[in-house]
Each structure stands twice: as structure tokens, then as C-alpha cells.
Fold these 4 entries.
Entry 1:
Amino acid sequence: MAKKRSTPKPKAPSSKPKVASSRPAGTGASAQKARAQGRRLRERRRNALLVGAIAAGIAGLITFQVVRQLNLPGERFASQGNRHLTSLSDARVSYNSDPPTSGPHMPGLAPWGVHETPVEDEYLVHNLEDGGVVIYYQMGTPEETAAAIAALRAIAAPYRNVVITPREGMANAYTFTAWQRMQRFDAIEEQGMERFLKAYEGIDHHVPGVG
């Protein structure tokens, strides 16, 4: 007797619900791009703040220097350079101030200290370049000249790089010069004269390779 072939029963559909993907929306390439753009934006903001801070610092420094220059004593003259002359027989220099405050000069210096006769400008300019202050006085009677020298010597006593010398043809009694600076006085003014010396004495003005 032949056996009956059993027919397999069809599988019943699963009643187990499908589990939604645990991967949050937006975690693909588009989300990574958005995060990268966010980082770049934050970096640009930080860089902008840094550049702004640097610019503000530079502006503040420039302002400080400008104000400082305006508050320094004396009149300022443009530099005429540091070139050395070979001798006093060279063509006379046309300085932009009288007495001079910069420009071509002799290789040698005038001795520091007090002089009772005028010194050539071309030597004194080198003293200025070396951080000196040159003080000119108007000659008078022997008594007046001695009094002027004594007063100037006392004011300049705390400073090393000072020349005190007479100058002919000055309209005022005293003239203080430093590199690119000049201040005139009609009488002994200790406070103003000391301020000039304190501001400029000892500042070297050599240019590397020149003078």
C-alpha cells in the first residue's frame, strides 16, 4: 500500500514586530558635514577675535608712542642721517636746525664737559649721535659767562654725556640739543632743563653700518 506524501504546512507570518533602527536620523554624511562646518565656523570666530585683539594691541601701542612723542620736551626735527665726513674741508653741511640736531659729522667727538670757546658743529653732531646733550650758552661779560657756566654745570652734574659750549649769534640765552630735538631757554630754568636732560641723555642713535 503506497504511503501518502505529506504536504508541508505553510509558515504562519511572524507576529514579532520589526524593531526600528537604533541609528539616529542625521548621523550620515550630511550630519558629519554639518559638524565640520560648525567647527570651521567656531575656528573662524576664534581667529577673528584673535586678529581683533592683536590689531587693538598694535593700535594701542602706536597711540602710546605718538602721545609719548608729543609729550617729550623740545622741538623735533627730521633726521638728516648719520654719514661721516672725511674732514672739515668738505663742503659745509646745510643743517635743518640751528644749532644742528642730526646729520653728517666728523668721525671724532668733541670732549665732554665745559668749553669756553665755540666748537665746530660737525664734531658736536657726533656727540649727539652718541647719546649726548649739547648745551649752548650765550657769552656775556666774564662775570655773566662764569655765572652761566656754573649754573649749567650744576644742572648737568648727574649726567655723563654733556657738552657745555658757547655759541655766537644765538637770540636766546641757552639752547639744549639732542639728536633730532632742541629746546630754547631765555633764562636758567632748572626744571625744564633737567627734564630735557633726563629725556635724551644717554640714548644712542647710531645706525648699523653707518657712522
Entry 2:
Amino acid sequence: MRALITFLLLSLGSSNAYAGTLTINITNIEKTDGTIKLGLCDTGDAWLEKGKALKSFRKTTDTSTDKISIVIKDLDESAFYGLALHHDTNGNDKMDLKIFPPGPAEGYSFSNIGKLGFTRPAWEDCKYSLKGDKVINLSIIYP
């Protein structure tokens, strides 16, 4: 009986919090050159900070498709996440900006945000919770 109780307690205590699967569908890829760069952040401190994303993905674009999907498994369901996407069309590894009208000169997308205003999107506006499996659709916005 003691062994059964111990087994049950251990079984209950070992539930995996890392059970969520996130599928990201990226659409509206208009440019056939460059690289799609996607960052998944899990804290406000890492949000939009180069090299601080929880997970990063790079995909070279080509003429065969205007959409791609990325699947991330075993994410902590109790955490919040935010996605930032940049289509680096000229390969200089940075988001180019234009002066007039002010804003990005290359394609971009963020979770929970449509078009940008005059400032960078805030973590609070872009974060979302993950409960089980989730699908997020990002449509790239080009200037």
C-alpha cells in the first residue's frame, strides 16, 4: 500500500508543464530575396533585444512559396510569449528604417499587432498565453 501511495504522489508531481505546441503560420511573403527571421521571447526584458530571444529561426526565402510554417514543441504552458518577425531583404542583419514616412523599410510582423505606430511595439501589447496547442498567423507587412 505504501508503494502505491508513493507511486501516485510521484506521478502527480511529475506532470510536464512543457506540453504546449505552437504553430506559427507566416504568410504574405512578397519578396523572394533575403531571410525571414523570427524570434520567440518569453520575457519583457528579452523583447526586441538582439540575441535574447528564447528561440530564433531563420528561413531563406525563395520563389516556391509565399508562406511558411514553423512548429515549436514542448513550450511551458504557464509562460507568456511574444513573436517578432523581420524579413531582412538585403542581408545586412538589421531592420532598415526609412525617414519619410518614418518606419520600417523591410517587412515585419508581431504577435497581436497589426501595423506599427510611431514606436516599437510594447511587450504588453504583443504577449500571449499558451494553453495547450496554439496556432498564430503572422502576415508580413511591407512598407
Entry 3:
Amino acid sequence: MTLFLNLGSHSGHHISSRDPHHESRATSAASQVDYFSGIPLLTTTSHLVGSLHPDNAADLPPPGTSVELILIARSQTPLADSALLQLDDVSAERPSKLLWVLYVVWIDGVAERRGVAQILERALEEAVEPKPCVKSIILG
């Protein structure tokens, strides 16, 4: 199943090392493991319904752009740096109705992964146009 949500502001989101041994590793760019904090995913009415963790922030479209997401699994616990933790009804201490999705961009008929996200189940009802649908995909 695919759906579309709007990308929130990502100007204030930073990159941090996710590797606890980062300080002891070589300092070459190839040896660093970078992680992007959660970027809000929004409905057309600007309700926060997801948290995107891009593979490369430089590849992100501007805020307000509709991005395509492919549903891959259910989840109950938001990531530690999830944008969803801004909501009163989402907590790391209690189960939430979440879904894992892939953020993809289509290139010559192949869905290219650009990041992962967690979204609230209710995002399926509040998704932007086109509405959620079943789609055959080839991942590249």
C-alpha cells in the first residue's frame, strides 16, 4: 500500500552520530555513521502524523512537498528522536498504533528508497491526494 504525506520543516534538524564508538573510529567521511533526527510528516491540514528519517538530507525536497510512502510493517514504539514524540498521545513508555513505511522516489519505474519513517495508523485516513492505494512495486 502506498500513501502520500507532506514533508514538514527540516531546517532545524541535525545530523548526529549513532555509533557509540564514534570518537574512537577513524575520522574519514567513509567511517562515520550519520543519523538524521525525525522530520515531521503532515496531513493537508498540517496535523503531525509521522516522523521521517531520510537517508540523505541533501536529497530531500523542500518542506510542504508531498512524498510517497510504502507501508512495510506495524510498530508500537516510536524511535527515540521521533517527531511523533511531540504529540501528547504518543510515548516511548506505552504502545502506540504505528506503521513503518519507506520513503521512495520513482526512477524509470523503480521505487528508490530515500529513507524510513514511522507514521500513526490514522495517517491512512488523513493522507494527502492521491489517497492510499495498493500498488505493485519494484524496489531498486
Entry 4:
Amino acid sequence: MRPLFVTNTRETQDQEGSPDVPLYMDRHDIPGATAEDVAMAHASDLAVAGRHGVQFLAYWFDQDTSSAFCFARAGTPDAVQAVHAESHGLLPNEVIMVEEKDVLSFLGKVQDPADAKQLTSAFRAILFTDLEGSTSLLDRLGEAPYLILLTEHDLILRHALAAWHGREVKHTGDGIMASFAEVSDSLACALAMQAAFAGRPATAESPALRVRVGIAAGEPGPGGP
């Protein structure tokens, strides 16, 4: 697992703080860079961001790959590029528009560490579940009994998420998507889910439930979860 460290910058700009302004994420590949180099470059960004109508919200640095990520509010992606061009010349490989609710769902609250010792990892494991044969269950049981069964299904999944520090990102109707800060927690959660369904008593009115679970892991942003 590659550590991806995050810090949250304080909001020093005013007008760009509106949630109506688009939120962008960019990625910089900076061979040989250190965390200190990236922090200095980011400080340079903050010094000129206001001139381009940009508000930087957070940034990350992957020490193993020397990749840096920035989150910012800006009118256009060109404005983000212009800040980097003026401040230090380290242009991003790409800039993409993202939804703030999705970023927060996957990463949770972005903390503002007091110093480098408090930096946290933004690497995430994403867990997906799917109830096997949900359509045939609905057809066989009818809507009301099926919804009761689905409620039990959801409670089992959410109990495992709570026990293993998972963050529910999305409910898909017959499954969930969840985010984990630790891959080991996502694996333990998957095993707990399977064990709970395997140990659940089955009857004609409440048949056995089989749930598929998949896990992916990676960095946030382009190419990540």
C-alpha cells in the first residue's frame, strides 16, 4: 500500500468559497520531490491563488510515487493551471472536475493537521456488495416480504461496517459501496459480512441470503476510487 498524505489549507480567499463554484482535482507527477518541497510549492500557490480566482482546499502527497494532488475551487480548470504556472511552474498532468459530496463520501472529513506528524493517509479501500438473485427473491416472495428481508440484509451489512470502521458511500438497492482507510479493515469487514449471512437461520418465509463482496484500493482522483 502506498501512503498518500493529506493536509488541509486554511481558507484565505473570500469570494471563491461559494459552493456554486466548481471543485477541481489535479495531479502532479514530481520525480524526486519531498513532502517539504510540495509544502513549499503549495505555499507559493496560496500566495497567488486570489489573483486567478482560485481557492485551494486541500492537497496530498504520495511519497512512494512522488505524486501530488490538489483540491481547489475555481471558475475553470485553466485558472488552476494558471496558479501553478505563476507560482512554481509545476503544471499538473490533468485537472478534472469533481463533486464535493463524492470526495467527502470517500475520504471523510479532511483534517487540518498542526504539523507533519499529524498527516493522515488518503489511500482508500472501496468495498462493494451485491445480493445474489435479488430480482428472483422479489418475484418469489412479493414486495412486502422482500422489503422486510432487504431491511435485515442492510442491517447486517451496516453492523459490519460499523464494527470495522467503514464509511457507507452509496446504497445501491440490493448492496452498498463503502470506503475504508485501511485495507485490512475492508477485508475483515468482508469476512464478517459473509460470516453473518452464513450464520443466519433460513426459513421458507425468510430464505438464505448470499452476498457477493468485492474490494478495490487506490488513490483518490484520476484513476483512483
